[in-house]
Amino acid sequence: MSESYKITLKPVYSQTVPTPDGVKLPKNWSLSWHQAATLEVLRDPNIDVVFNTAMAGDGKSLAAYLEVLQGEFSAIGLYPTNELARDQETQIKGYVEEFQPRDKPRVVRLSGADLEIYAENEGLKKSAAIATLTSQREALLTNPDIFHYLHRGAYIIHGDSPDKLWGRIDKDFDLFIFDEFHIFAAPQIASVINTMLLIRCTNRRKKFLFLSATPDKNLISKLETAGFRCREINPQEQNKYQFPDTPQQEQQLRSQGWRQVARAISLNFIPLEPTFKASEIWLKENSNLILNQFQQYPGSKGAIILNSIAAVKRLTPFFQEILQPYGLRVGENTGLSGKAEKEQSLAADLVIGTSTIDVGVDFKINFLIFESSDAGNFIQRLGRLGRHDGYEKNGQQIKFENFTAYALVPNFLVERLFQVESPPLTVNCICDRMFFQSTIKEQYRQINDFHGYYRRWGAVQSFWLYYQLSDRTIKQQYAQSREQFQAACEEVFETSLKFIAGRIQGWAKDWQALSGKSGNPIAEDAASFRGSSPLQCGLYDLMEVNEADRFKIYDLPGILSNVEIEMWTEAAFIRTLKETAQRIGQPIAKGRFAHCLAFMKLRSYREERLNWKFTYSGDLQAIGDAWKVQVLKGIEIWQPENYWIGEINKRLKKEGLVCYVIRRPVAQVRMRLRLPMHFQIYPISDRYSFHDATAPYAIAFGHSALLLDTLAYTFKSKGDEIWVA
Question: What confidence tens digit (pLDDT) does each residue in 2-28 have?
């Protein structure tokens, strides 16, 4: 094993408080300080927005739904991943069983696929399906994407009044909960601000609750600018956490009613070269470490969280082969894992996954190995460990003996933490979480928060909402609301909607000139929630055991780098999907495949990543020197050893792609602008640089193009010094 640097993180205890008047709790339950404080401010008519920044594992979900569990109150919970929504549904139904409220709250979960299948089965339009599924429910768990599109009129048909759905839903629900909000980037935050402004201007006062251990300062300041009355519930600032040093101190805290929310963790930093397969190689070379954990501490449960789907796909069978002879089960959980596989993976002895499992899912594990790409991501993943004393298996309680983590990090981080003069950490030191987290934030890579996005692009969404409020069916009803909405948006995004309308018109004209078609790809991207990916492909996964889950979506860049495929036709793909659904008697959602660039069969995952780049048949210099988001046609892919790329290029070069081109190599742009790991930016050459060893241009698509637009000006400055992150 390569050299490791070990530290110990102290346990964490959270203060409990006497149960507030009128609150009914199950027998022997008590509330943490932050849970009672959250309930109090949600009941305060003078507060609109609450930010709860309690630590991972300290019961933020209960704080959010406590009022629902008292009866006579309803909430919408918005979760960034379907896994988290599923996890929360189980948790909330568990609370309903424990609390036994007189009026039992009805809980429903709604994902895009659920909605499509329900509408199809019932023979309903999506708007009618949403109306049916959301009516008479006290807790609706969905994702912010559906919430966004619902308020943008995406599910209604021509001639319906724009408020047909949101008018009723916004009235029916008292509280809007945004969970794990820190994982969102500026475009999603702008969307939420716009939707909150729409709700406030068209409805009586509603409550909004954000649950996040690290709240976004941009969001708080923008909401305050808009006149929302905000309150932060911060147990850390109020000294509601204690980090005891000895078992005696722990015992004393327990006797005073403090509750343990995190166990002591032995954390080992493993410095690795920041190369593509470093973590994967380390895991294979140190597989005995994982086997020893299970043998030395029977009943252990572990997780490995990595950055790359392909790495997880290669490592899962590797560890299955090693651990199966010992009766240990290995599960896999990534964006490309089937639904059944994901659900079963959390019960496995060892789950190997990507960010699909680090976002809020409540793990019962005592052993964690994880990669990370920046400070927030490191803290998020480490937060999965030490939350539970044990778990139940076949009706028996199994208690964990210890909690161990291995952080696979770039060697520069270990140098900054342990090897500089007067280092912030020393080997075998013992420290509390708060000090540790602030140290990681200071020393690890900080990614860009794209604060320029709000002013430049945030009001494009505002304009569409304002425009909808002018619809003849509701114009009179919302005349005052529309004026209030316009004023609030202009103040928050520091621009005028008239100016935005001019920009939108300009993009439409440019698109008409380029394509001969009506439409507005740039405005559509700016008004979307996560951006449209013009590079998504439909995959039929031959390695997937569960037939219903074989139909998947994956981005073309990931396919080019990591997988072996065979081209297929859309007709054959959809025909197979329908035949499968009929044969197994289970509906399969197909709406997500409507805008795929191509369809293919996934045969296997490559051992080595293949190189490729985008190419453009013309001259990119003038395009790069325009310093703006534009729509380009004629983009292709160069990957010489690829026999099927010609078919893709035939389609790709006809597509009008919303993009931003910058005359710098990708690596330089990534480093200098501190871009997040999965930021969609790629190398591109033109006819003059086709044979250059390193492509001299970088290209970003969709939302990434809009985000890049807010930063690229820094490259215009005199002198091309590189800023090292």
Answer: 578 999 999 999 999 999 988 999 999
Tokens at residue 258, please?
């403090």
Contact yes or no for 619/688 (Cβ under 8 A):
yes
Residue 239: per-residue pLDDT: 95
Copy the structure tokens of residue 545: 């055991």
Nearest partner of 405 among 443, 434, 436, judged by Cα: 436
DSSP assigned state of 55? P
Cα of first residue to Cα of last residue in the chain, in angstroms, is 29
> Alpha-carbon distance 390 to 411, whole Å?
33
Compute the distance between CA of residue 472 and CA of residue 162 in angstroms, rounded to an integer.
10
| Beta-sheet strands, E only, within 491-596 | 536-541, 551-555, 563-568
Residues 538-572 have pLDDT tens digits of: 999 999 989 999 999 999 999 999 999 999 999 99
**Which of 108-122, 224-238, 526-540 has the weakest average pLDDT?**
108-122
Query: In the predicted model, is pLDDT for residue 720 greater than 50?
Result: no
pLDDT digits (tens, 9 = 90+) for 161-211: 999 999 889 999 999 999 988 888 899 999 999 999 999 999 878 999 999
Tell me how far the alpha carbon of residue 375 is from its chain's centroid: 16
Helices assigned H by DSSP within 304-409: 309-323, 339-345, 355-358, 375-382
Q: Which phi-psi region, left, alpha or beta, contains residue 267 (left: φ > 0; alpha: ψ -120 to 50)?
A: beta
Instruction: Name 637's Cβ contacts closer than 8 Å, sequence gap at least 6.
Output: 556, 560, 612, 613, 614, 615, 645, 648, 649, 652
| Average pLDDT of the residues of the chain | 92
The strand ranges marked E within 423-527 are: 430-431
Cα–Cα dist 553/368, whole Å: 29
pLDDT at 684 over 90: yes
CA 207 → CA 78, 110, 212, distances in Å?
A: 14, 21, 16
Asked if 364 and 384 touch (Cβ cutoff 8 Å), the reply is no
| Chain mean position to CA 14 | 27
Burial of 73 (0-12, 13-18, 19+ CB in 10 A): buried
Q: How many CA atoms lie within 13 A of 58 on its CB side?
A: 29
- Determine contact, residues 317/331, Cβ cutoff 8 Å: no
User: What is the chain's length?
Assistant: 725
**Which residues neighbour 466 within 8 Å (Cβ) at sequence distance 6 or greater?**
482, 485, 486, 489, 497
pLDDT of residue 609: 87
